[in-house]
Amino acid sequence: MKFFIDTANLGQIREAQELGVLDGVTTNPSLMAKEGITGKNNILKHYVDICNIVEGDVSAEVISTDFDEMIKEGEALAELHDQIVVKIPMIKDGVKALKYFSDKGIRTNCTLVFSPGQALLAAKAGATYVSPFIGRLDDISTDGLNLIAEIRHIYDNYSFETQILAASVRHTMHVIDCAKLGADVMTGPLSSIEGLLRHPLTDSGLAKFLADYQKGN
Ligand code: E4P
Question: Virtual CA dihedral for 173, 178, 179, 180, nearest 10 degrees?
Answer without folding.
Answer: 90
